[in-house]
Amino acid sequence: MTYALVLNSGSSSIKFQLLDPNAGANDEPLVSGLVERIGEATGAIALTVRGEKITSEVPIPDHSAGLEMAFALMAEHGVGPSDVEITAVGHRVVHGGKVFSAPELISDQVVEMIRDLIPLAPLHNPANIDGIEVARQILPDIPHVAVFDTGFFHDMPPAAALYAINAETAAEHGLRRYGFHGTSHEFVSQQVPDLLGKSADEVNQITLHLGNGASASAIRGGHAIDTSMGLTPLAGLVMGTRCGDIDPGIIFHLYRQGLSIDSIDNLLNRQSGVKGLSGVNDFRALREMIEDGDTDAWSAYNIYIHQLRRFIGSYMISLGRVDAITFTAGVGENASFVREDALAGLDMYGIEIDPGRNGLPNDGPREISTDNSRIKVFVVPTNEELAIAQKATQLAARMQTSVS
Ligand code: ADP
Q: Domains in the chain, please, with CATH?
């Protein structure tokens, strides 16, 4: 059996999986791991190897040491990089800008191009580059592939992609809607035509990725025509800690009131959303608070649902005809109450949730609408690591064939 290694590097963490790219979406990876608190006094490595959990608390000075230590721990359990055959390393890269639409084989030049995009993703792309550089040093003989979170939205129609901002300034600074979570929207939306028994090019659909971060997409015939995140992942839906769409004038107002740009950034990205309104960002806790009569939790939930319904409604009009609406990610897959409230009272538009189907536990792709519902509603679990593993493996194989 051959495997792909998938890396998602953050500023102080590396998440990774070693998995079979031909596995099913619900299969457990051979190894999943998290290296966290890199650069802090005590770091931690947590691995799950064939279902067994292994943890180690050690100082981890930098990304390089973190990955080396994780690989050494994997080797102790017989699943290190020299114990199994790895055919590709897939790297999640947050921002591909206007340059990258498809997965890219990583070379020094590609790393420089990702570096050039740092102004568009100042927190994410540097961390992604750290992960790429470290992994290329440790595993120099394996093809490394960058898979971009923005790629799926690269070719959106200009009316959806461009902002009504002075054209010269927009061009100078690359201001446009890039969209994020593209790997997830693509992975999930590609399964819907099969569920409908139709071919991909005849399906119009809305996908709702509701995790801690959240985004909605409108997809026509396999191509994204709109999405809720923008130049950055701050835009669109209300999220765990991010505000989603707000009046941009709020930022000037706060700035003129004396808040620094960094504190406004922190406020809108980390202290807002459901957490900023209720104190919690986990929907399990939010639901318990609502059941206990907490009015802030109830208000946060209503603001979240209100915004979600706005996007669903506007994408229905943009698409004209909708065949399916699909929920995915932590909230979308597990919180049946969110699905119910997001689509309640829409039978006149041909949307009818079946409460029995909606209440079933999260177990693979499934329909939750009634047999009569004209627009079908699905839950399709996302698996971004598997999607990246597949893309990286396919590209590595294509390169292999074109070289030999
Ligand atoms: P991320 O955006 O960090 O990848 P996930 O897609 O894993 O996040 O979603 C995490 C969120 O999913 C949690 O914060 C929580 O709100 C929600 N969630 C996870 N499991 C459940 C559950 N059983 N019921 C309700 N919400 C859940």
A: 2-148 (3.30.420.40), 189-384 (3.30.420.40)
For 360, the token pair is: 């079933």
- Identified catalytic residue from 27, 62, 141, 149: 149
Nearest CA to ligand 1 atom 7: 330
Answer yes or no: is 319 a known binding residue: no
204 annotated to bind ligand? no
Q: What is the mean pLDDT of the chain?
A: 96
Burial of 167 (0-12, 13-18, 19+ CB in 10 A): exposed
pLDDT tens, residue by residue, 48-107: 998 899 999 999 999 999 999 999 999 999 999 889 999 999 999 999 999 999 999 999
237's CB contacts (< 8 A; 6+ apart) are: 210, 214, 215, 216, 228, 244, 304, 307, 308, 311
Q: Would you say the pTM of this structure is higher than 0.85? A: yes
Assigned token pair, 77:
């359990």
Distance in angstroms (rounded) separating the CA atoms of residues 271 and 242: 7
Measured torsion, CA atoms of residues 59, 61, 63, 64, in degrees rounded to the nearest 10: -100
149 is catalytic: yes
* Rounded distance from Cα 213 to ligand 1 centre (Å): 9
Is 43 annotated to bind a ligand? Reply is no
pLDDT at residue 188 greater than cutoff 90:
yes
Tell me the one-letter amino acid at 391.
K
Residue list, ligand 1 pocket, CB within 6 Å: 211-213, 240, 281-284, 329-331, 334-335
**Cα 257 to averaged position of ligand 1 atoms, centre (Å):** 35
Q: What is the pLDDT of residue 102?
A: 95
Tens of pLDDT, residue by residue over 4-34, are 999 999 888 999 999 999 998 888 999 999 9
Number of residues in the chain: 404
> At a CB cut-off of 8 Å and minimum separation 6, what does 217 contact?
152, 153, 179, 185, 189, 206, 207, 209, 224, 226, 227, 228, 315
For position 401, what pLDDT does the model report? 79
Beta bridge partners of 220: 204, 223
Output the six-digit token pair for 297: 């939790």
